[in-house]
Every structure is written in C-alpha cells, then in structure tokens.
Amino acid sequence: MAIEGVNTAIPGRISLTYKYDASLKKAMPVSKKLIVVNGKAIERGTIGGMEGSDYIIILTPDEGVQKYGKIGALGLIEAKGPKITLIGIPSPHLPARHHHINRMMLFNINHKYFFKYYCCEVCLAINFKLAIAS
Q1: Element (H or E) spanning 124, and its range?
Q2: Contact, 107 vs 113, CB < 8 A?
Q3: Boundaries of every domain in the chain
Q4: pTM of this prediction?
Q5: pLDDT over 90 percentage in the chain
Q6: Which of 63, 66, 82, 91 is the most buried (most CB within 10 A)?
C-alpha cells in the first residue's frame, strides 16, 4: 500500500518526506497520518522516520478512529518492536530526496558576488541567508 509522503521500501524502516509550510515557517511531513510507536503517539513534525521495527501496520481512517479515537481520524502508521530508533528530521538545506542540483543563482551583496547552487526554493532561501551572513 503506497502512502503519499511515506517511504516504506526498506523493511522495518519508515522515512517521511518533508515539505516547507509557509504558514508555520518550517518543514512539515507531507503525510498527515498519525505515527504510533509501541503504543505512543508521536507529534507530527518531530521525527523524520524510524528504523528497527519488527512490523509496521497501516490503519485506514476508520480503523484509526476505532483504535485511537479522534486522533486517528486521518489514519495512522503503527510500528512495534523493542529496538525502534527514531530518525531526526532532515536538514532543510540538505533535503532527503534531492536527486541533483540543477540551478545556480548569482548574488550581489554589498558589491560582492556569490554563485550559489540550489535545487529548490527552500535551499535558495537558505543560501541567500548564508550569503548575507558571510
């Protein structure tokens, strides 16, 4: 079963895809499903994934509501296992899924020129802030 924003290609491992949310001014997971690790709900936007689970169960919204009440209303991903390790959120300047860098920008700051390579608008904004700081 494919879930948008969730990569389960490696057995026992889940990786979340993040997207910049302009209203919150931070990256947030694309998937809105609740993640539950060994019965404990994980707050959305606090992990980048997990590895080492014995098994992963994906519940539909109806199953999520039956098992966890209102918090499972968007469906959920349930992982169980004694050796689960939570993975940190990917760095915004090194997004997890960039295949190549295909853009370049010339910055002119105080008559100094900087060439910066970037792959998306988030990386461009970060590079601009780094160029100003240097």
Answers
A1: helix 121-133
A2: yes
A3: 6-87, 103-133
A4: 0.63
A5: 28
A6: 63
